[in-house]
Design goal:
Layout: H1 2-26, H2 32-49
């Protein structure tokens, strides 16, 4: 259960990190090239982490 929660947090942070560079670019804080690389890295992390917990049944609590 702890691993599932950790992977969930990582995937949610990666999803937020996918959006943040575009906002930083619009604010003039990043260049287009660095925005694209940051979004690519965050997307790769999200696609790695999300399948590990999405669509799986929660484990039954130990008795």
């Amino acid at each position: 259960m702890r691993l599932r929660r950790t992977v969930q947090v990582i995937s949610w942070l990666a999803l937020a990190a996918t959006i943040a560079p575009s906002v930083a670019y619009l604010a003039g804080l990043m260049t287009m090239v660095s925005m694209k690389w940051a979004m690519l890295a965050a997307t790769a992390v999200w696609f790695t982490a999300a399948p590990l917990w999405m669509g799986r049944a929660k484990a039954a609590p130990p008795e």
